[in-house]
From TrEMBL:
<keyword id="KW-0472">Membrane</keyword>
<dbReference type="GO" id="GO:0000155">
    <property type="term" value="F:phosphorelay sensor kinase activity"/>
</dbReference>
<dbReference type="InterPro" id="IPR036097">
    <property type="entry name" value="HisK_dim/P_sf"/>
</dbReference>
<keyword id="KW-0547">Nucleotide-binding</keyword>
<dbReference type="InterPro" id="IPR011006">
    <property type="entry name" value="CheY-like_superfamily"/>
</dbReference>
<keyword id="KW-0067">ATP-binding</keyword>
<dbReference type="Pfam" id="PF02518">
    <property type="entry name" value="HATPase_c"/>
</dbReference>
<keyword id="KW-0812">Transmembrane</keyword>
<dbReference type="GO" id="GO:0005886">
    <property type="term" value="C:plasma membrane"/>
</dbReference>
<keyword id="KW-0808">Transferase</keyword>
<keyword id="KW-0175">Coiled coil</keyword>
<keyword id="KW-0597">Phosphoprotein</keyword>
<protein>
    <recommendedName>
        <fullName>histidine kinase</fullName>
        <ecNumber>2.7.13.3</ecNumber>
    </recommendedName>
</protein>
<dbReference type="GO" id="GO:0005524">
    <property type="term" value="F:ATP binding"/>
</dbReference>
<dbReference type="Pfam" id="PF00672">
    <property type="entry name" value="HAMP"/>
</dbReference>
<dbReference type="InterPro" id="IPR029016">
    <property type="entry name" value="GAF-like_dom_sf"/>
</dbReference>
<feature type="coiled-coil region">
    <location>
        <begin position="260"/>
        <end position="312"/>
    </location>
</feature>
Amino acid sequence: MLNKYMKTSLAKQFSLLTATIILAFTCLIASLLIYQNKLTTEFEKVNSELEEKQDTVYELDYAFNLAISEMRALFAYGSLDDSYKATYLENVMLQKDIVKDKIQVLNGMSLEEDGRLFLENTNEFYEYYFENLVPKSIDLFEQGKLEEVSKIATTGENASAKIRDFQSSLQDYSTGLEEKVETNFYSLQTNTLYSQIAFAIALFLLIVGMVIFTRMMLVKIGKPLRKLTIAAGEIAEGESVLFTDTTNRQDELGLLSIAFEKMTKSIQDKEQDLNAQNEELLAQQDELQAQQAELEEALETTQNRELDLKRRNDLVKGIANSLDKQEVLSSIVKTMCEVIDADKGIVVMLDKSLDHASFGISKLGKEQFLTHLQSGLIVRLQETKKPYSVQRESSEAEMAFHTTKSYCYDLYLPVLSGSGKIEAVLMYSRFSRPFTEIEIMEYEALTKQVAISLDKIKMYEHSERERVLVQDILDTIKEGIQLVDSKGSVIQINKKLCDMVDCHSQSFIDSSYETWIEKLSASVKNKLEFKAFFQRVLVEGKGEEASFIYHQEEPLKRVVQVYCEPLRRDGEKVGTVIVHRDITKEYEVDLMKSEFVSTVSHELRTPLASVLGFTELMLNKELKPDRQKKYLTTIYQEAKRLTALINDFLDVQRMEAGKQTYDKKYDDILPLLTNIVETTQINTPNHQITLDVATHNTMVLGDRDKIGQVFNNLISNAIKYSPDGGQVEINVFEEGSNLKIEVKDEGLGIPPDAIDKLFTKFYRVDNSDRRRIGGTGLGLAIVKEIMKAHEGEIDVQSKIKEGSTFTVSFPLVIGMYDSSRDTEQKDGNEKEVNVIIVEDDSSLANLLKTELEESHFNVKTFNEGETALKAIKQEHPDAIVLDIMLKEKGIDGWEIIRQLKEIEELKSIPIFISSALDEKEKGLALGANEYLVKPYQPSKLSKLILQTLLKKDWSGQILVPSKSYDE
């Protein structure tokens, strides 16, 4: 029954094979696991017993050793103190109990021969040691017979030897237990390995059997399948097939063979019917092919019409969907080429721009067409305003590889505006066939669409130019302009308003009243009043309010005045022009003016009150001389304070008017700084002022008094704004090509938002601590102007409550030379700077000589050219100041320069031209180093000479003035 059931299905056969393999594999795995589990259980049992014996033996060993040690301690130290004796005896008894317990534990275990022998030895030793030896020794010890105790251990009973024998026996048994543990472990490993090898062999045999049975089943299935495949091939070739043994199978292959046999018989029966039907279909096919040819011809005509309509539609779309002229022209010429079936074409606007586009035409061809627009065949087009076609022979370039004569057909089309004027010219060429009259009329109609598109672009360009012009005009206005319609929606804004609101113009235009009022008011401080103003003006129509001032916080803090003006057209209001004017500077100036008046009133009245008060006392009372001197000193100090205040006002006015003069000379600022520090330190006992100089190059070109005013202001500010005292550091150092001086304090510090305004006239930090200090707010403004006049800079760094650092920098002068040569200067290897002045004006010559000598130069003057040239050749000066026009007969300045430049040893001498003639280019071309046009400040000449000479090295020596700068 089972055999019949399995034969009816291949799937059942494979399922049975698979189940058999899985069952066999499962049994194999289970056997391996059961066997290995048994091995592990036996190993753990034996190993546990051995480990328990080891632990017991170890504890016995430890207890015996500890008991022996306690006995020895008793004999060694028990006589010293009874408490020690009792403790040692108690410990011995405790270890005795432990040993007895462990012997009982060992006795209850399953022991082998060696274990039983060890147990007997242990019992014997226990009785000998604890029952006999220990009590006996303790009695002798308590009787004080220490020598007899010693004899028991060494002679007679010889207890030491017995103890060693027992310990040796215990050690041997412990070692034997360890060997049994290792033997048990090796046994487990060996049995496990054998079981794994047996499993591998069984698994291999199982796999081999599975392969064999699978091969047999595949052969049983594959053979009938090959026969069915051969039969299918024979049927496909029209041969008859005879099925034999495959139909006797009861599985799926048998059913497949039966169905295949029935299908073969059915195909053979219907083959004859199909052949008859095929002949009938062939006849119908011939008839359908004839009809298909007619339909294809009609379809081709329809497709040509559709393509033509599509091209015309593309032309209309191309010229209607864009307002970019060049894009439209390109679309016209390309689409018209497709509509006309032309090979190339061009379109040109006949205005001043001559905008054009082409298709299939070279750059040279376009230039030729544009050059002859007003001549040739274009003239005919302009006169008749009608399209026409021309036949001509093809040029060599157009013929390509053709050698026979061929013709080309050109079509000229005018594009007429609504007024009848020709706006553009279209020209197309094709080689396939000539243009017919019907085609020309059709193409002429298309040019009307082109004309409409060009007119639309022209109107758009005009309006766009007007719009851009208006927008450019609005963008040049410094106020923010905003145009809204009658409903409040934004029509137009300018760039200034975008900058004020920090937005993009495209996002602002066409926004409703509610949208833009929210955007504007978002950064406004007094936003409620701001919204109320626009509500009254734009919504309620109350135009009596001329303007409104609001304070903006972002993107910058501004004060803005806004006013609205109605925009009318034909007497009717169509919108409103809103102007936002930035009045921040005016607002700050007004605040500073008010504050300045208050400050000046306080600063002037305070010293005046002292002057008037002490003067009145001296006039109305008889005072002692010392009291008079004290009052006069106070009046003098307050008068100096008034004078300094007035001088600050005057200095600021002169600097703003450009009338401040500076007496600049080369000077060492170190003595100046030292003097200011010493003077200031006397008057400020609460501050410690230090001066640290990290450079020898402390020379600057400047006005000594003005530079002193700079340092006086900075140091006095450092002291003033450090009301609690502290350190004031002054550091002098080089950085790059600058000499820098830092003034650092530990005072109040400066808020970050005030640093940008710190050097503004009358500005004072808005802080109650600083208000109590006082001041006009002019000192730092004067310092900045003085540093600017000296080509220097001032910088500040500060932290609140930590102090401020002001840094001024001057261009280096003496510092330009190599410091490695200082030793040579100290050794006296210096060279005096000799300057020859050639000037026929004696007054000017003496003025220049005085100025140069004050700057420590050795100077000689000459008023005649030949004499001066002779002296130059003899003395070889370091620099020459030369006038061009000399009164005496002889050579002029130009000739002196030419001759000097021809002499090798003299051509490198720096020449500074000083002349009333403005011929600077000529002078510099001839080789002059600088050209000064009279009148000029003499100090400028000394500065130029020194700066030029400091860069030169003459014979390995440093050029320095003939006198020391310390003089």
